[in-house]
Amino acid sequence: MDESRRLKPLVAALPRRLKPRAKSLLVTVWGDAVAPHGAGIWLGSLIRLVAPLGLNERLVRTSVLRLTREGWFAVAREGRRSYYGLTDFGHKALVADPPRRIYAATPTPWDGLWRFVLTNLGGDDRIDRDTRLQLRRELTWLGFGAVAPGVFAHPSPDRAGVERVLAKLGVADRVEIMAATPERPRGLLQSCWDLEALRAAYRRFIERFRPLWQALEKAPDPEPETCFVLRVLLIHEYRRIILRDPELPAELLSADWAGGSARVLCRNLYRRVAAAAERHVTAVLETADGPLPEPRPYYFQRFGGLAEPDAHTQPRPDTREKTP
């Protein structure tokens, strides 16, 4: 049997198996496939693009309207056509922040120290309640765990991200950041993060997408639409896990931790289908000025580089786990 024909029904069954929510899936489509082109797109062409994902016209129109009301999109009208593009808020949410985590090629090396952020110093350095709550949300988004009221910990945080948060909230001079080595790191791991739930999520991800990788390896020329559907649903599922993963150093995780294998599997699949999926996106989407412009340079840096993919080879392991 032609392996490309074997792959197509496997991919076509994914939307029914995963049951993604329309609004959330559209956010993934925009961040992964639309935003890199930096242009507003005609709503009618978006409806055509996402139809193979199981989203009908009514769902798309309703979801786009809600996202526009929530501040993600701005709309421009040309005659009877509506063109949607990202607002500053949408750009920050989909382009500036999450991609660093979603599309990272390898984990950040660990220096062996933990970072503790103390946010409740008291006296003249006291932070008001609303700002403390916002700071807690921002630090949690960056993967920090709460050790005690006003104390947050992470062994290998995004330090530049922490600095941006403190500067944005105007509390850089009222927060103390300490580097230390805890005597009982296992206790901190258990109290700060639900690693068992993450482990289970990564294992489900591997179980769902490994058969697709195996079929894809043997498919010489998969159809662009099939590649697009696979790429979007791959990133949608991976994004849902990685954005709640504190991304702890491998040295602190158990030998059977599945996060490294999931990262390698996602990277290989993405690299393999990226070019064909991109051809489908540019063939379907329309702007007010015609076809989509070329993707911006950051797109080609995803997963360590899309220009020279090694999809048909096994990558060098970047964790203690073997390539799935």
Any overview of this molecule?
The structure is a single chain. The protein has 13 helices and 9 strands. The protein has 324 residues and is of the alpha+beta class. It has a domain of 67 residues: 2-Layer Sandwich (Alpha-Beta Plaits). Strands 5-6-4-7 form a 4-stranded antiparallel β-sheet. A 3-stranded antiparallel β-sheet has the order 1-3-2. Strands 8-9 form a two-stranded antiparallel sheet. Helix 1 crosses helix 12, helix 8 runs antiparallel to helix 9 and helix 11 crosses helix 13. The radius of gyration is 21 Å and the shape is globular. 32% of the residues are buried. The C terminus is likely disordered.
Quick gist of this model?
The protein is 50% helix and 11% strand.
Mean pLDDT: 89
Span from first to last CA? 25 Å
Strand order, main sheet: write it out: 5-6-4-7
Query: What is the CATH C level class of the domain at 114-180, in words?
Result: Alpha Beta
Spans of at least 5 consecutive residues whose pLDDT stays below 50 are 308-324
The ordered H/E elements are HHHEHHEEHHEHEEHEHHHHEE
Dominant shape: globular
Percentage beta strand: 5-15%
| Fraction of residues in helix | 40-55%
Radius of gyration: 21 Å
Total count of helical runs of at least 4 residues: 13
Class based on secondary structure composition and strand pairing: alpha+beta
Biggest sheet statistics: 4 strands, antiparallel
Q: Judging by the overall fold, what is the CATH architecture of the domain at 114-180?
A: 2-Layer Sandwich
- Could you tell me the CATH topology label of the domain at 114-180: Alpha-Beta Plaits
Q: Total number of β-strand segments? A: 9
